Amino acid sequence: MTKKLSRKLPIGTTLCVTTSSGWRPRAAKGQAFTRDDLAATAVALADRDGLDVVSMRRVAAELGITAMSLYWYVDTKEQLVELMVDRIFAEQRAPVGDDWRSRLRSIGQDTLAMYRAHPWFIQALGRPSTLPGPGQLRSTRRPGC
Fold first, then answer.
1. Taxonomically, which superkingdom (predicted)?
2. Tell me, what DSSP letter sits at residue 5?
């Protein structure tokens, strides 16, 4: 009897699977990666070369692992892009200011800086998505707005 293992891991978990034979799939040189590591690598790749260049194979090459190893963390490239988008949203800071106008100006300035730092971000937002991630939800909870 074969058990089907879910490959969807919560953000921040590391991969450590042991089978009855003792075989453990691991990253190169015994490193274990988190989904956040994958997202950070993919964001750096997209910042450097553009979103179209981001592929499972390229991200895996940047991490020094095989492309198939990434499928333990995400099922598709779309999920990887969702992690990338969520990571960028998580970088946004809370708005500053005493009144609604100054807070709105702060949000606008931070958003513009985000788009300038990650020019591929608008293209990634245009893709069909499932649910927003924790970083995106955190960015919508703005106290005082």
1. Bacteria
2. P
**What is the C-alpha to C-alpha distance for residues 42 and 85, in angstroms, rounded to an integer?**
10
Q: Which residues, other chains included, contact 89 with Cβ-Cβ below 8 Å and sequence gap of 6+?
A: 132, 133, 135, 136, 138, 139
d(CA 44, CA 64) in angstroms, rounded, equals: 15
Query: Residues 83, 68: contact at Cβ < 8 Å?
Result: no
Rounded (5°) CA angle 80-122-50 = 60
Instruction: Count Cβ atoms below 10 Å from residue 28 Cβ, excluding itself.
Output: 12
Phi/psi-derived region of residue 91, left when phi > 0, alpha when psi is between -120 and 50, beta in every other case: alpha
Tell me: the pLDDT tens digits for 89-122? 888 888 888 999 999 999 999 999 999 999 999 8
- The whole-number pLDDT of residue 126 equals 75
CATH 1.10.10.10 given to domain 31-130 = no
